[in-house]
Amino acid sequence: MNIADFSLSRTNLSQQVADHLEEVILSSTTSRISEKLPSEMKLAKQYNVSRPIIREAMKLLQERGLITLKNGSGAYISRPETNTVMNAVSRIMQVDNISAEELTQMRGILELSSIDLAVQKITDEQLQEMKGIIATFSDTTLPLKKRVSLDEAFHIAIAQASGNNLMVMFITVLTSLLRDYMGKGVLVDGGIEDGIKRHQEILSALEKRDPKAAHQAMVDHLRVSSENVKEFDKQGVRITKKK
């Protein structure tokens, strides 16, 4: 890692060090995941700052998901996890008062793009994975948390089939932020059965590699899901238990 010829102003030193180290990590052609960074002492000497400032800079880089700190070992370059992005989006939503409706609109845009790409590229192995998810999802006795988890997994699997890694990350983040929303959709009477049907229709269209049917199946699924959530919010209705 080359950090020569970098000078600091005397304010916000830890922020400046963190920003520069981030630039070095991201721009370096030699940096590798799990590569160990120089020691606190060496970095303090190179940046001409105290070790506490380096320590604070390391914490900032850890928050950004760029390094992992290991007690007694040091700092190692890491790949930002989805949770890092999810937490950042969640904070932005709160600060900018972004509504759940805006979030679901963005999810819809991404989900339709995702399935449009997936229907062109999906492999037999990926279809088999989705079949397994739907087979478990079709059990009407599943607890809500498990059902929502499988719902997430199915949509993430479609994103993976799209072949676009950013699509996978964004859909993973949005579905994680919308877990409560997705849960409401099955808490109305008939919601479970409808959810199973809609997912099976999506899978069937993907199996046939039918772009129009796949796109429409996703449109229908997202529309009905939104209607169910509105119904739940309006009436607070719960699933009618069958005898």
What's a concise summary of this model?
The protein has 243 residues and is mostly helical. The protein has helices spanning 13-27, 40-47, 51-63, 82-95, 100-121, 124-137, 144-162, 165-177, 179-184, 191-207, 211-235, and strands at 67-70, 74-77. It folds into two domains: 13-77, Arc Repressor Mutant, subunit A, CATH 1.10.10; 83-235, Four Helix Bundle (Hemerythrin (Met), subunit A).
Description:
- The protein has 243 residues and is mainly α.
- The chain folds into 2 domains: 13-77, Winged helix-like DNA-binding domain superfamily/Winged helix DNA-binding domain (Arc Repressor Mutant, subunit A, Orthogonal Bundle), CATH 1.10.10.10; 83-235, Up-down Bundle (Four Helix Bundle (Hemerythrin (Met), subunit A)).
- Helices cover 68% and strands 3% of the residues.
- The protein has helices at residues 13-27, 40-47, 51-63, 82-95, 100-121, 124-137, 144-162, 165-177, 179-184, 191-207, 211-235, and strands at residues 67-70, 74-77.
- It is elongated and about 65 Å long.
- Mean pLDDT is 88; it is low at 239-243.
List the quaternary state of the chains: single chain
The fraction of residues assigned to DSSP E strands is under 5%
Described by strand count, sense and barrel closure, the largest sheet is: 2 strands, antiparallel
Return the CATH topology of the largest domain: Four Helix Bundle (Hemerythrin (Met), subunit A)
CATH architecture assignment of the largest domain: Up-down Bundle
Total discrete domains: 2
